[in-house]
Amino acid sequence: MPPRQNPLLNQSPGLEKVATLLAVSSCKGGVGKSTVAVNLASALKRSGARVGLFDADVYGPSLPTVIRPAHTDLFSRDELILPLEYEGMKVMSFGYVPHAPGGSGAAIMRGPMVTQIINQLLTGTEWGELDYLIIDMPPGTGDVQLTLTQLIPLTAAIIVTTPQELSFVDVVKGIQMFDKLKVPTVAVVENMAYFACDDCGKKHYLFGTGVRQRLVDQFGIKNSFEIPLVPDVSRLSDAGTPIVLEKPDHPVSDVFRRIAESAIAEIRHLREDGGGPPGVRFVIGRGVVVTWPDGREQDIDPAELRRSCRCAHCVEEMTGKRLLDPASVPADIYPTEIHPMGNYAVAIHWSDGHTSSIYPFDLIAGLENS
Ligand code: ADP
User: Fold this and answer.
1) Residue 159: burial class (beta carbons within 10 Å; 0-12, 13-18, 19+)
2) Which helix (H) or strand (E) holds 114?
3) Do residues 285 and 203 share a domain?
4) What is the chain's pLDDT, residue by residue, as a tens digit (370 residues)?
5) Which atom number of ligand 1 is nearest to the Cα of residue 65?
6) What is the dihedral of CA 292, 294, 299, 305, to 10 degrees?
7) CB distance 34 to ligand 1 below 6 Å
8) Structural domain contains residue 250
9) Does residue 47's CB lie within 6 angstroms of at least one atom of ligand 1?
10) Using a 6 Å cutoff on CB, does residue 37 contact ligand 1?
11) Number of structural domains found in the chain
């Protein structure tokens, strides 16, 4: 899907001159979402872009901890709040607003109030001309986040996760939430992916590996990044300086730079392309017909596509061994439901009752025309 154009943008004077709003989101708290948001903003700034950072986490604003602007008094002009400045970036957080409903107050606020308040602070801030406004979303994929995604004219999203068992499911939930509102997920960051030992130099994957590969295999998301658990990251955060600014030559700073570069490239690509995933439909007599963005059509034999399913029921995750017996797929099988999964894959339910097939478009492109 193309980067989202939102008519609300014109009704938000503070946001009028912001070219790109990029959400940094996570399913759970404590996975490093704010750390990624602030370092990503810093990396974009270092690349020469005009950058803002909005901490939308009304429940637990973390910006006042992870960065220290020289002044934190807020002033307004023409009914808009002037953002604070930090290292050439414009920043705003509930943590800077006196008597803001942060902390325990926010916990008892109902969803609609929370989203209204977040939206008011975002649209009531005079952001000025910005290339990128990074939005540090409140953690979760519930009603608050969904409403915010609806209210805020987001261009695209980045999802942050950790490598624990449930994180893959979390990422899927995140992609689906943004999908509902046509916000493309342009990158996935696996934070605290491993611990790099100072003594032996080895990478210790304490929680296992594989999340990123599954994202590539199942969702076609190629822009996924691993960030190790690095004591310097949290030490510098606690001291109020993002590692990208304090130690630009640190290998972790390099990962943040690559995340920034890939997000820039992906958003540009989506804009230039007119964007949009290929169209997929079932046509009796032709099979599954894929219409690629350049107008080319590919007809695929449904049984062949069903046999190519790489879900956990059809292919053993660890070994890659095929579990589906190709002979068990009926020759007259057909899709009962087809719907896009993010920008890079399509989900298909089949007439044999199989409902967990997700095909990255890269995989489909490699299948033969029937
Ligand atoms: P969230 O925004 O998801 O709640 P934070 O960004 O506040 O999470 O991070 C939670 C804690 O983990 C913070 O103390 C932060 O400094 C630390 N942290 C985040 N990422 C890393 C990392 N890669 N290595 C070490 N500590 C990290």
Assistant:
1) buried
2) helix 111-123
3) no
4) 555 555 555 567 788 899 999 999 998 888 999 999 999 999 999 999 999 999 998 878 889 999 999 988 889 888 899 999 999 999 999 888 876 655 444 445 566 677 888 888 999 999 999 999 999 999 988 888 888 888 888 899 999 988 876 677 788 888 888 887 888 888 999 998 888 776 777 788 777 776 777 777 777 777 889 999 999 999 999 899 999 999 999 999 999 999 999 999 988 888 876 666 789 999 999 999 999 988 899 999 999 999 999 888 898 877 778 999 999 999 999 999 998 877 778 989 999 999 988 898 888 999 988 7
5) 7
6) -30
7) yes
8) yes
9) no
10) no
11) 2
Global pTM value: 0.82
Expressed in angstroms and rounded, the spacing between residue 235 Cα and the centre of ligand 1 is 10
Give the residue among 320, 335, 319 at the shortest CA–CA distance from 287: 335
Residue where one domain finishes, among candidates 244, 272, 300: 272
Residue with tokens 């691993």: 226
Cα–Cα distance measured from residue 32 to residue 255, given in angstroms and rounded to the nearest whole number: 14
160 in the same domain as 77: yes
- Decide whether any atom of ligand 1 lies within 6 Å of the 33 Cβ: yes
Residue range(s) defining the domain that contains residue 218 = 8-272
CATH code assigned at 300: 3.30.2020.30
Q: Are residues 244 and 287 in the same domain?
A: no
Distance from residue 37's CA to the centre of ligand 1 (Å): 11
CATH number at residue 257: 3.40.50.300
Of 272, 292, 310, the residue that ends a domain is: 272
Which of 24, 25, 33, 35 has most ligand 1 atoms within 8 Å of CB, for mutation? 35
